[in-house]
Every structure is written in structure tokens, then in C-alpha cells.
Amino acid sequence: MTLEICGDSLESYKLAKQFAVKRIELCSALTVGGLTPSMGLIEECAKIGGVEIHAMIRHLEGGFVYSDKDVETMKKDISNVSLAGGHGVVFGCLTLQNEINLDQNKQLFSHAKSLGLEVTFHRAFDFCSDPKSTLNTLIEIGFDRLLTSGQEPTAIEGKETIRSMVHQSNGKIEIMAGSGVSASNAKELFDLGVDALHFTSHKINSEKEKLGMGNKTIPKPEKIASIMAIISQA
To answer: I need a labelling partner for 190 at 20 to 30 A (CA). Which of 36, 66, 69, 159 fits?
Structure first.
């Protein structure tokens, strides 16, 4: 069982290394589902080393529908992730009908693979109108893994869909459960047969910054420790 932490800071990366977690998904703007992190952050994390860096490629909030110009921006971000020392990228492109945008995803996938990066399809999947067909398409394209909550707000709510996806995928793509993962449900999610669990390494500071500048995240090592303790006993 692989654990992947989702974080937005150097502190998150250090925490992942402290607990010997295999991967971190680096993002910015976690309160809107995650956006592309700064290249400076990726570089500083890469200098520390020891944990794979997988960067979110999503420069716009508000969904997963992109123009051709957006895709060119995403290609440049993927190139920069490689140059900054990243190991993989995380993205997903949909149509207005909530179907996978085959051409855009293939473009980004091919570009990432040409740079030697691993590729994860993120929770855009959870908005798709036909999850079984979409999963088959992701396997055909060659995605390394899929992050999903089983098309529900949390992974534990979507557990039956996730169980079905594990069976359908038959080892052809890694299935990673994410959203709402905690010590209270980690064992139940583990028992679904997923390849990985994905969860945040932080809590949100309840005190907002002035003038609408948002909330800072605060690393929460006890969350990681409690989940790891449960998994080690599973």
C-alpha cells in the first residue's frame, strides 16, 4: 500500500520525508481543489529529496474544461515541472458534457511521457458521466494511476464504486482513493484493494488573513502518524 500526501508547502514535503511517504502531490490553492504549484517550491523540495514530487497541472480554478491555449500553457507547466526536478504530473481534461477530452489528455500525456514523467489522472474523473468507459479510456491511453473518491464527496462514501473500479482495472492502472481519508476509515479503504491512499498533510488555519487573502495551511503530523499506524496493522 502506497501513501501519497497532498501538500502546498516546503513544510508538507519535509513532513512527507519524515514519515517516509513515497509521494507528495504538490499544489497551490488547496481550498479550490488544487492548482499548479510554483516552480520555486518544486525546486526547493527537490533539493531536499527523498520523496517523489507529483505536481498538479491545473492553472485555472472552476472545473476541468480547457481551451487549446490552456493546453499549451499546461504543456509549458509540465516542461517546467520536469526541469524543476519533479517525478510526475497530475491533470485531467473534460468536455462540456463531462466526458473525457480524448485529444487534450493524449496531448498532455504524450508530452509528459516524453519527459520521463509519471502521469496521474485526478478527480476530474469523479465528474465524468460514464465512469466505467472513462476508466477503460485512461487504461488505453496509458495513465499510471487514477485518483478518485468514487464519484462521491468522500472516498468512504464512494467505496462501492472504488471497489468496482479496482476489479475493472485488474492491475492495468493504479487506483488511488482520496478525499476524506483518515485513521477512522483507512482500514476500510485499504480493504477495497486500492493501490494507494491520498490525503492532506495539514489542517486549515481558522483565522483568515486580512483583505480576503485566504487561509494558511498548518502541517498536521499526527494525522499522518495515525493513518500509518492503522495501515501497518492491516
So the answer is: 36
Cβ atoms 30, 200 nearer than 8 A: yes
Task: Say which amino acid occupies 131.
Answer: P
pLDDT in tens, 175-193: 999 999 999 999 999 999 9
Percent of the chain beyond pLDDT 70? 97
In sequence order, what are the beta bridge partners of 197?
3, 177
Distance (Å, rounded) from C-alpha 109 to C-alpha 173?
A: 14
Q: How many CA atoms lie within 13 A of 102 on its CB side?
A: 8
For helices 39-48 and 68-84, angle between their N-to-C axes, nearest 10 degrees? 30
Beta strands in 69-201 (DSSP E): 88-91, 118-121, 145-148, 174-178, 196-200
- 2-233 placed in CATH 1.10.3720.10: no
